Amino acid sequence: RDKYRYFACLLRERFDKNKDVKDMVKATELLRAGEEEFWANQHPQPYIFPDSPGGTSYERYECYKLPEWCLDYWHPSEKAMYPDYFAKREQWKKLQRESWDKEIKQLEEETPADGPKTEALPPARKEGHLPPLWWHYVTRPREIPM
Amino acid sequence: MEITLLLNTSMLLTLTIILTPTLLPLLSKTYRNSPTTITRTVKAAFLTSLVPMSLFTYCNTESITSSWEWKFITNFKIPLSFKMDQYSMMFFPIALFVTWSILQFATWYMAMEPHITKFFSYLLMFLIAMLTLTIANNMFLLFIGWEGVGIMSFLLIGWWHGRAEANTAALQAVLYNRIGDIGLILNMAWLASTTNSWEIQLSHSPQTPILPLLGLILAATGKSAQFGLHPWLPAAMEGPTPVSALLHSSTMVVAGIFLLIRTHPILTTNQTALTTCLCLGALSTLFAAICALTQNDIKKIIAFSTSSQLGLMMVTIGLDLPQLAFLHISTHAFFKAMLFLCSGSIIHCLGGEQDIRKMGGLQKTLPTTTSCLTIGNLALMGTPFLAGFYSKDLIIENLNTSYVNTWALLLTLLATTFTATYSLRMTLLVQTGSTRIPTLTPMNENNPMASNPITRLATGSILAGLLISSIIPPTKTPPMTMPITTKTTAIIITILGIILALELSSMTHTLTQPKQGTYSNFSSTLGYFNPLTHRSSSTKLLNNGQQIAQNLIDSSWYKKMGPEGLADLQQTTAKITTTLHSGLIKTYLGSFALSILITALLTH
């Protein structure tokens, strides 16, 4: 890790030397040379964590992740195995139906005119509102299924 | 007489035991399969298959059983015939032993899978297909087994079908196998048309034309991942580790070589075919060894080492030594399966981590696994008196002392060096050195389901070489006299490879940035083969299709036949006539006057 710091300081020094170049042509050329050097210095086989996209374990359990509306199709004997969840489930669904319009209205108000800038969703602003698209977040399947 | 009966009965009993978990749930309503029942079934089958093997060893019994012919044309019969000869009887116990260990390991490894019984039944189906292939006496049954292992390979590689790369890998496996199947079907067609039967022992003709033999070699290239059709084997590592251990190390990939061993009598007659095998094998073993040098994923390293050993087996077949190839298959099964199981244990303990750059210093934490890994690697390198020695050293001795292609010899020797290099690299990076694993990884080897199979296979890899080579009587005299350098070539080269690996590892500890030389680029992108062939073949095909469609349909029918054709015709006629009717009156008057003058002069 100390080696990384050393080389990072050298690179910063190189960058700072050319900081005050006002000539646009030269600046673009410097940028292009820098980008080429970046590409040439890329690692041929970069280390990718197993769960990140491109890793060995990414999306491995996608085939076991079922959507939550399958729960509606369970047999009553199966539903009886989780009584407290299913007792409240209808109320949750009613809540989702009611808050949906408010979520949409909030999202429409808060996105700028030519499309959303980031993927982050805004939090709930008013009293009694729920954060937009909360249902998909609350009912997402677990990462490593049973 | 009774001995043959005992032999037949015990072999058929083995096969029936294997089939039981597939049939019992259909017959009885309350019976459910479970991983433990399937493991126990395979263990029982292994113990039963030891009977015919010992019968073969001590009484030299072989038999061919034929029953129930499928008559669909009058003079071409396909009997259901089993050939129990040296190869199949030796292969059964080995395959069943390895499968039993792998299934036991898989009960620990796949314990978190929701559909674990389906996984085990897939593995069992694969085993049935593989054993059918081994014991088949005619090409039809062999083809059934061949296709069976191909399909089960597809299903098992794409076990986690939510993952895009697993699906592409499974497709790759099936497509490359299919291309090899073309060769096999070609060979079967030739056999059916010339010899009128698909039995294997009846195909002894003095000179076989090269075409069916090339078909066989193509089939082996596809199934055993030789150079031209190899990308599916490293991609097949997308499947779970027990799948890699069973299919792609010990059993399925030797199906191609097994086919060549079975049809060896017709291969011997044609020297060109043997030379093709030799060169193809040498090329694939070197290419795979080069690619394995810069891989960073343990499973890919072991996959490439499998590919390299398969090339070596192909070289043995090219040298006209089917028994030695079979010996190498058997010994290789033990240590390769063990290597895969060890790597699976390491991966699971580290929580899914497969990159060797993030492993190190595992010797203290996982002693059994790492020592078995070392034993496996030593056996792979051909250390004297471990399993690999008996087969590998013999192959290299024969290679050195026969009158073959020097180029193939050099390639194979170079590949042997590289084998030592990458095995040592893997061992060093995984086990020794300062640890690079993330902190707080709880790892243990307490579970006997995981460590028993590994230790069992370790004993197997140590003893199997000695046992099997002393049991099989050789049909050809092995070369006995050769200069000392030739005899010790394999060991010298292996030691060279070890020294190379040690040098490189000490160099890399002092480097700060990974250099990108031409050679390391070639090796890390697997020789540029994957993108080249995959993209070029599909773009060519699509382009051709587009050209054909464009020329035939669009331009011909819609344009030339109809409006544009008429328009073109009219245009050309119009152009010709406009040149004629240029409208220059003076020229007309002049030519008119000239012609009148000429006629007046002539007629005067």
Automatic annotation (TrEMBL), chain A:
Q: Does the keyword Transmembrane apply?
A: no
Record keyword Phosphoprotein present: yes
One GO BP annotation is: mitochondrial electron transport, NADH to ubiquinone
Region described as Disordered: 103-129
Every copy of the Complex 1 LYR protein domain together lies at 4-39
Localization (cell): Mitochondrion inner membrane
What main location does UniProt list? mitochondrion
Q: Membrane topology for this entry?
A: Peripheral membrane protein
According to its record, what are the GO cellular component terms?
A: mitochondrial inner membrane
Its keywords, alphabetically, are: Acetylation, Electron transport, Membrane, Mitochondrion, Mitochondrion inner membrane, Phosphoprotein, Respiratory chain, Transport, Ubiquinone
> Domain of life here?
Eukaryota
Name the family: Belongs to the complex I LYR family.
Its quaternary organisation is: Mammalian complex I is composed of 45 different subunits.
Task: Please describe what this protein does.
Answer: Accessory subunit of the mitochondrial membrane respiratory chain NADH dehydrogenase (Complex I), that is believed to be not involved in catalysis. Complex I functions in the transfer of electrons from NADH to the respiratory chain. The immediate electron acceptor for the enzyme is believed to be ubiquinone.
User: What is the protein's given name?
Assistant: NADH dehydrogenase [ubiquinone] 1 beta subcomplex subunit 9
Protein species of origin: Buceros rhinoceros silvestris
TrEMBL record, chain B:
Q: One GO MF term, please?
A: NADH dehydrogenase (ubiquinone) activity
Grouped into one coarse class, the protein's main location is mitochondrion
Listed A to Z, the keywords are: Electron transport, Membrane, Mitochondrion, Mitochondrion inner membrane, NAD, Respiratory chain, Translocase, Transmembrane, Transmembrane helix, Transport, Ubiquinone
Pfam families given for it?
Answer: NADH5_C, Proton_antipo_M, Proton_antipo_N
Superkingdom, natural source: Eukaryota
Domain NADH:quinone oxidoreductase/Mrp antiporter transmembrane intervals: 136-418
User: Which reaction does this enzyme catalyse, per its entry?
Assistant: a ubiquinone + NADH + 5 H(+)(in) = a ubiquinol + NAD(+) + 4 H(+)(out)
Subcellular location(s) per record: Mitochondrion inner membrane
Give me the Gene Ontology terms describing cellular component: mitochondrial inner membrane
Entry EC number(s): 7.1.1.2
Give the GO terms filed under biological process for this record: ATP synthesis coupled electron transport; electron transport coupled proton transport
Locate the NADH dehydrogenase subunit 5 C-terminal domain: which residues? 422-602
Q: Which residues cross the membrane?
A: 6-28, 90-112, 119-136, 142-161, 173-190, 210-229, 241-261, 273-294, 301-321, 333-351, 372-391, 403-424, 454-472, 484-502, 583-602
Topological type in the membrane? Multi-pass membrane protein
**Domain NADH-Ubiquinone oxidoreductase (complex I) chain 5 N-terminal residues, every copy:** 70-120
Primary enzyme class: translocase
Which family does the similarity line name? Belongs to the complex I subunit 5 family.
What is the stated purpose of this protein?
A: Core subunit of the mitochondrial membrane respiratory chain NADH dehydrogenase (Complex I) which catalyzes electron transfer from NADH through the respiratory chain, using ubiquinone as an electron acceptor. Essential for the catalytic activity and assembly of complex I.
Q: What is this protein called?
A: NADH-ubiquinone oxidoreductase chain 5
* Organism in which the protein naturally occurs: Buceros rhinoceros silvestris
**What's the gene?**
ND5
